């Protein structure tokens, strides 16, 4: 009932918007933005803690690189069972991030969708602030915006741009209810997020995102060039062609091309098992992960651990638990199966990355050594659209906004601060 698509349903039910709900959390979704605070049912929190306390450990055989370690399992279990304080976590998220719920009604191929959304929205006091849509990815959530949001809305001085920041949860993640029927992929998310920006009065805006955020922004910039002025992606992926691979085999690849292909192949061969499962049979794994909060946390931590720069940060048990709760509270199926929708829309093809829509608005890309787009050359990046600027960093990883906020902020300020090249002079009038 969450994702009604028939217009008559809309006329009947739009007023009775409280039909939209989330398991284990009191949330209402109406036709305009309403302030929202996280308050998860305390019986559910205690049930979760008990499941963790009773978790059965695998019989470890001392192999490396097959998933989180015995030590990780034990650390997270013990912390969760004995010390983790959801009350404090919830209160600190609510204090730090101003959240809202709403329903948007994009019309996609003559179907009116009703999409309930949870989002963060911080308005800048600066009069010249630019609306910025921040889109999170897998296995993250809206929490990825936490470490950059205040500097974006209140930059240190007037020589760098300020932003009104909107950070929605993709349906199925965080506190945006999962779609109740298949067919909601990056195209539909683009329509929904564009409708959200318009509902907030931001007819023109820029986008920043990594992972799924970096995928969705390419659909959205392609579909709504009148609204999306410019984008900065820290996950601009291009699948190497057969010719690129042959050139590497023949020793003709440049150092950047060789590094990029090797990183991609290592990821595909050694670290993408979760992805193949999620884009083919997401329900199969979901039975286990819905039932075992610790299993769910290990599922996402396996990837989280691989894609950060160990010289910069180490995940704490508290972060691992809190990030996993952004899937576990409403149930992980909707978030898990977004991969399937991304594959259905062509952006993943079996083990490879697929073809993404061409972006014609100005694009900047940022690359970090612990992410899989690292070193991709600019001429390859341009196969995906109008990529003008490429920032290559010497440290950091996949969750740039969270892990190396100062580096990403610098890229955001430089790119969108260049009014001519990025096109943000459109906001001057
Ligand atoms: C996870 O295990 C690895 C390898 O044993 C270790 O380096 C890391 O600190 C552990 N992290 C946690 C949160 O237990
Ligand atoms: C958390 O809050 C609930 C009620 O909101 C209370 O019953 C419980 O004791 C609190 N737990 C902790 C660890 O403070
Ligand atoms: C949408 O409706 C218009 C007008 O009725 C029609 O011309 C068009 O073919 C429809 N498009 C789709 C994708 O059904
Ligand atoms: C303004 O802040 C930016 C970002 O921190 C910094 O790079 C720049 O030097 C500052 N400019 C002035 C005039 O203080």
From TrEMBL:
| SUPFAM superfamilies (UniProt xref) | alpha/beta-Hydrolases
Keywords for this protein: Aromatic hydrocarbons catabolism, Hydrolase, Signal
InterPro entries documented for this protein: AB_hydrolase_fold (IPR029058), Epox_hydrolase-like (IPR000639), Epoxide_hydro_N (IPR010497), Epoxide_hydrolase (IPR016292)
Q: Name one GO biological process term.
A: epoxide metabolic process
The record's comment on protein family reads: Belongs to the peptidase S33 family.
- From which residue to which does the signal peptide run? 1-17
An example of a Pfam family matching this protein is: EHN
User: For this protein, what is any one GO molecular function term?
Assistant: epoxide hydrolase activity
Which residues of this protein are catalytic?
211, 339, 398
Residues forming the Epoxide hydrolase N-terminal domain are 34-145
Its recorded name reads Epoxide hydrolase N-terminal domain-containing protein
């Amino acid at each position: 009932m969450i994702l009604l698509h028939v217009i008559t349903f809309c006329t009947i039910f739009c007023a009775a918007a409280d039909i939209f709900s989330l398991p284990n959390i009191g949330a209402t979704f109406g036709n305009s933005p309403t302030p929202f605070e996280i308050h998860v049912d305390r019986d559910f929190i205690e049930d979760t803690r008990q499941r963790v306390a009773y978790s059965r450990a695998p019989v470890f055989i001392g192999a490396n690189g097959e998933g989180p370690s015995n030590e990780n399992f034990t650390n997270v279990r013990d912390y969760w069972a004995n010390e983790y304080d959801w009350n404090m976590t919830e209160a600190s998220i609510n204090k730090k991030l101003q959240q809202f719920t709403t329903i948007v009604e994009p019309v996609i191929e003559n179907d009116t969708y009703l999409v309930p959304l949870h989002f963060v929205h911080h308005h800048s006091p600066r009069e010249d602030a630019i609306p910025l849509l921040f889109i999170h990815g897998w296995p993250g959530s809206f929490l990825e915006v936490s470490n950059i949001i205040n500097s974006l809305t209140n930059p240190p001085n007037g020589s760098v741009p300020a932003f009104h920041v909107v950070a929605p949860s993709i349906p199925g993640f965080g506190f945006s209810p999962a779609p109740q029927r298949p067919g909601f992929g990056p195209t539909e998310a683009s329509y929904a997020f564009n409708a959200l920006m318009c509902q907030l009065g931001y007819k023109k805006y820029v986008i920043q995102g990594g992972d799924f955020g970096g995928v969705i922004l390419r659909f959205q910039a392609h579909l709504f060039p009148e609204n999306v002025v410019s984008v900065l992606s820290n996950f601009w992926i291009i699948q190497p062609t057969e010719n690129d691979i042959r050139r590497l085999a023949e020793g003709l690849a440049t150092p950047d091309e060789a590094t990029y292909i090797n990183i991609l192949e290592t990821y595909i061969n050694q670290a993408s098992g979760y992805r193949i499962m999620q884009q083919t049979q997401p329900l199969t794994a979901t039975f286990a992960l819905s039932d075992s909060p610790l299993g769910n946390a290990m599922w996402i931590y396996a990837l989280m651990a691989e894609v950060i720069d160990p010289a910069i940060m180490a995940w704490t048990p508290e972060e691992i638990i809190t990030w996993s709760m952004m899937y576990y509270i409403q149930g992980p199926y909707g978030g898990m199966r977004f991969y399937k929708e991304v594959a259905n829309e062509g952006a993943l093809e079996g083990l490879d990355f697929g073809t993404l829509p061409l972006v014609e608005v100005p694009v900047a890309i940022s690359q970090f050594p612990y992410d899989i787009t690292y070193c991709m050359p600019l001429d390859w990046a341009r196969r995906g659209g109008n990529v003008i600027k490429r920032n290559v960093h010497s440290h950091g990883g996949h969750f740039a906004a969270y892990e190396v906020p100062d580096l990403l902020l610098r890229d955001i300020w430089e790119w969108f601060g260049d009014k001519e090249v990025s096109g943000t002079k459109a906001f001057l009038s």
